[in-house]
Structures are given as structure tokens and as C-alpha cells.
Amino acid sequence: MDKKELTEQEIRTRYITPAVKNAGWQEHQIREEYQLTAGRVIARHNTCIRDTNTIKRADYVLFYNFHTPIAVIEAKDNKHKISDGMQQALGYAEMLNIPFIFSSNGDGFIFHNKYSGENEKIEKEISLLDFPSPDKLMDIYKQYNNIDSAKEKQLSSSYYTENDKIPRYYQLNAINNTYNAIINGEKRVFLVMATGTGKTYVAFQIAWRLWIAGIKKRILFLADREALRNQTYTGDFSPFKENMTIVTNRKVDKSYQIYLALYQSITGQNDTKNIFKQFSKDFFDLVIVDECHRGSASEDSQWREVLEYFDSASQIGLTATPKENKEVSNISYFGEPVYTYSLKQGIEV
């Protein structure tokens, strides 16, 4: 059969997938029809639904390891030029924070390398036989990001997978960006995610990766509502099991590694009510503040007092609505967000 008569799926099956596998990519590293979005939200008959016609899927996303997407491939049938999928692939790569982008019509690949050097072309055509191996792409990635062997070992720590729940692309971006900031030595990290996009789940996955890698061994999660704290304990954070406890307004048990607390229950007007001071200042090496816009950034707030007491710990601020005014500034305390996923993005994608 004439190659130009083949469908896009046939081009993928006969030419693109074999080229990728021949380069050393394993089955579990190749994710086809990788769904990025659920479709644009539209109003209909006094309700909101997702328009399934606007769902975005990448033809291929290649993962170096379970949590690191490193390349995207957009396929077209052979009636198209080899480069015709590039613009679409670049859009997906932007969403996924991916540096290596490929377009193919089955004749070869156009390779777009965001990490190309000064004397290198950012785009070049390569044959089906020259598709790069996982290690070749990862070597470029490590060199560009100054990742040495020690940091590479830290990056190998994966998120929790035993409940079969897989982070959506924006959650994975939030997890990876925050994790990378922490292992690169950032002391304060700010993360902005719209309500309903899984902030607490993201917080758990960040904490899990840092904890399981032995990078952060004692973690304090601060909430402002009892219902949220309890839901966190029985829900997203439950895989910590017997390593986790809830801090109440009495003498603390220092034998745990993960602590969930209400700031109201560990602070007060005098030292007898400042339960957090039962811990030494260096007891925690990570403090996560949920809904940090509610007052932790204010210099005279009770949360701020807790953060300053544990100032040797890395601190992560999570919010859906960052607060910026003369009295309160999340950014002045935590810094610019390492990742933002807005309500507008959630509705439009």
C-alpha cells in the first residue's frame, strides 16, 4: 500500500512506535493518547459540562522514569509534511514543561530541542533510525540543569502510586517544580492552585517524595480548619499510616514523623498555649502551610509566628487566592510561585 494512503494510526503503528522502541524506550515509558485536559467547561441548561470535543491529548508522551515526562511526539499521516505536527506538540510541551519535542509523518522526525546550545540549531530533521534513547535525552537534560549524581539520585524518588491514582499534568508540574525547588536549596516555596484542583493531594505527593527519599524526615502540615485537617488525615495523607499524628492542644508526642495541626490549636496569647514551642526549633525540616492566604503572610499573624519559629525548615505555602496588599503579601514572604494553575486555566483547557 502507498504510504500516503495510510491513516495516522497506521503511520504510528508501522513507523513511529517501532522507531521509538528501537531507540531503547520501554513499553512503560511510552504513553500514547496521553490525556492532558478534560475539555472546556461550557454552560448548558443551568448546569456546567465538559465539551469532550475539546479534550487535548498528546499522541505520545515519553517518560524517563515514572514521574518525569521528558519528550512529546505529535504524529500526522504521510500526506502531511514532517513538520506539520510541531506547533501542536510545542503547545503540549509547554503545558507539560517538556524540553524535547518531535513531529513526524512516518518519514522521520523534526526534533525541537529547547536545550540546544548557542551553536546548535533548535530544530533539525533526523531519520527514524536516529531517534534518541532515553539516556541520551536525559544526559542533555542533566547537563542543562546542572544535575550531578547526588541530585540525580534525589530526583529518582517517585510519588505515591499504590492507590492507582495518577497525577494530572498540572498536578505533576506542581509536584515536580516544588520538589525540585526544595532539593535545589530553596527555603520558601510558593504554589498557587485553584480551588478544586487537588492542592492537598499535591501537598501529600510533595511530602511523600521528600520523605521517602530521606530528604525531609519530619514534616508539619498546617491547616486553618478542623474539617480540612481531619480530611487530610483520613484522605490524601493516609498512606503515611502509623508515622503520622494530629497535634492537639496538649503535650505533644515527639515519636512521629508527620504532624497535622490547626494553627489555632498550637498557638495562643501566652507560652502555655503555644504548643508548637514544645518542639525544638529544628525539630521539623519541612513545614507545609495550606491556604496560606488566610493570614500566615501577615507579620503579626499566629501562623507567621510558627513559621519564624521553625525558620530552619523548608516552608511551602499553598493557596488558591494569593493575598497581596500593603499589610499582607504572600509573595514577599514565600517568593514568586514555582507553579500557578488558575481557575481560568481549569475552565478553558
UniProtKB/TrEMBL annotation:
This is Uncharacterized protein. It holds the Pfam family HSDR_N_2. It comes from the Bacteria. It comes from Mucispirillum schaedleri ASF457. InterPro entries: Helicase/UvrB_N, Helicase_ATP-bd, Helicase_Restrict-Modif_Enz, HSDR_N, P-loop_NTPase. One of its GO terms (cellular component) is cytosol. GO terms for molecular function: ATP binding; DNA binding; hydrolase activity.
